[in-house]
User: Which sequence fits this backbone?
């Protein structure tokens, strides 16, 4: 049996009795034979005439159907049935297929977690898919480090709330309103772990993502017309956005800890390639130093772990060619976060650790020659 979960993302409503088109984008989640996966988003076009006929066209069906109905509501309902039925024929992945993109779309209903006990302080996690992949359920065997990190904190002392969103950069997490949602929940005494950089090098105004930032930490800007958000936008540097996060969290009375981005599985001369001083890792460090906030160098801590393990042992730690980790890899990265916290003097989260955190190293991995 196949079950579908459809989330309408964007609908253009009919105007009067003129011939109009409704476009519905349906990201569909499929469960079949115990396999959970997200099917690529399908865009379906419905053309409704004054005679109350409906023409359904979707790439998954590879055809158009014209149907006559006395009621528009029935026609739209049939649209969903036809679309999901067509998708069920392509739901099973080929064994050789590449991992599907799990990043939520701009208008997706994310259902991000909330603090379980508002009376306790909360540690918010802010970042991209390397912190929370997809819906945080391990789709396509990919996990962010935010899920296993919860185990290293005592739930009777602190909430750990993973608000990271896949596909976002330091810019789009802010411009899409996700940062404001974190600010609305922040209270004095809360904490934030923030990690961006993987998606900041993309184009500024492409029609697919429009998520890039300008390189560096200066006040340089560029004016664009954003094709995704349909508005004019002033784009800033990566460092400028990171500085905004720090300053706005501080205004709320929260403690923010900046992390460098985790390394990708890219090797050179027996070492995992790092993001150095003239890159996102170095720029994150620079902002933390300028703003006098704690900094965790995940890029170096995890890179050192990978170097010591070697290429063959690191291979199964990833759920895709080089960026997103498996559950085992995510747990190693979560432990690297705990190591990074223990290396802080003082460590602002030390009193909130669980018993599991006691076994995690408090030293940097030894450098490999």
Assistant:
């Amino acid at each position: 049996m196949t079950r579908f979960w459809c989330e309408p993302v964007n609908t253009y409503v009919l105007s009067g009795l003129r011939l109009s088109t409704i476009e519905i984008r349906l990201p569909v989640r499929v469960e079949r034979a115990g396999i959970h996966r997200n099917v690529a988003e399908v865009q379906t076009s419905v053309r409704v005439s004054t005679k109350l006929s409906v023409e359904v066209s979707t790439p998954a069906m590879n055809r158009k159907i014209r149907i006559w109905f006395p009621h528009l509501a029935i026609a739209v309902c049939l649209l969903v049935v036809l679309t999901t039925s067509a998708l069920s024929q392509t739901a099973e992945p080929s064994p050789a297929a590449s991992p599907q993109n799990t990043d939520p779309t701009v208008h997706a209903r994310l259902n991000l977690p909330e603090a379980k006990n508002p009376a306790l302080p909360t540690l918010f996690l802010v970042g991209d898919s390397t912190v929370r992949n997809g819906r945080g359920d391990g789709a396509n065997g990919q996990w962010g480090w935010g899920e296993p990190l919860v185990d290293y904190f005592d739930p009777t002392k602190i909430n750990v709330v993973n608000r990271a969103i896949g596909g976002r950069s330091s810019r789009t997490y802010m411009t899409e309103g996700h940062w404001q949602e974190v600010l609305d929940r922040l209270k004095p005494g809360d904490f934030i772990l923030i990690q961006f950089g993987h998606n900041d090098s993309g184009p500024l105004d492409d029609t697919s993502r429009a998520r890039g930032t300008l390189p560096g930490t200066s006040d340089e800007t560029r004016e664009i017309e954003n094709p995704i958000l349909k508005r004019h936008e002033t784009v800033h540097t990566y460092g400028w956005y990171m500085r905004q996060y720090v300053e706005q969290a501080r205004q709320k009375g929260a403690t923010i800890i900046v992390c460098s981005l985790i390394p990708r599985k890219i090797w050179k001369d027996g070492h995992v390639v790092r993001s150095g001083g003239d890159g996102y890792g170095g720029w994150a460090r620079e902002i933390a130093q300028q703003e006098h906030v704690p900094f965790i160098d995940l890029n170096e801590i995890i890179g050192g772990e990978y170097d010591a393990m070697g290429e063959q042992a690191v291979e199964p730690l990833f759920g895709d060619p080089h960026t997103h980790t498996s559950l085992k890899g995510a747990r190693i990265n979560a432990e690297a976060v705990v190591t990074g916290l223990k290396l802080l003097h003082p460590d602002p989260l030390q009193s909130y650790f669980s018993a599991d955190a006691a076994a995690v190293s408090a030293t940097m991995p030894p450098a490999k020659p």
